[in-house]
Amino acid sequence: MTLLDALGWRYAVKQFSDEKIIEEELKDLLDAVRLSASSYGLQPYRIVVVESKVVRERLLPFSYGQDKIAQSSHLIVFAAQTELGDGTVDHYIDKCAEISNKHHRELVHFSDQMKSALAAKTPEQRQQWAHQQAYIALGNLLTCAAVMKIDSCPMTGFDSVGYDDVLGLAKKGLTTSVICPIGRRHLDDVQVHRPKVRFDYDELVMEI
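The structure corresponding to this sequence follows.
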């Protein structure tokens, strides 16, 4: 199946079957998401994988009645970091030094550039920036899942405060950005046989 075939195959699943995504598939999918692009490579978010039915039942009251979060194989939660600044950059520079086998002093210019860019933003702008990076990773999850024939449903309709509380994210310096149940589509899903509605190329793409 080509990439375009995979994207044509995928849709936002409304009803999942009880089939579980096997551990090897799940790890491959999340490793692909780990490789997603992000601003400066900082990846100012974490990915929370919720398999526990008990926890997902506790999240239902904060999901506006969308029980697919509990029906699916796993619930993927993208959580943006809330404490963004020099520490964020220092942590990344430590990783850069380790992987590239460079001394920290060789990375000072890069470090200062990132710190200046973050310092120029208000706390609200830094938080919005972190959420935007999480959405880039979400996009990669949806595409990679489609290629792997794993179904998904990105969701923004939830109470982030409730999610943060149930998952204990605040004490970890995180807040929920977006969620995405994954699994296998149910044969009775009302969306299965509906045509995919997208604007035509010439209507969507402007060539200058």
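Residues 105 and 183 are 46 Å apart (CA to CA).
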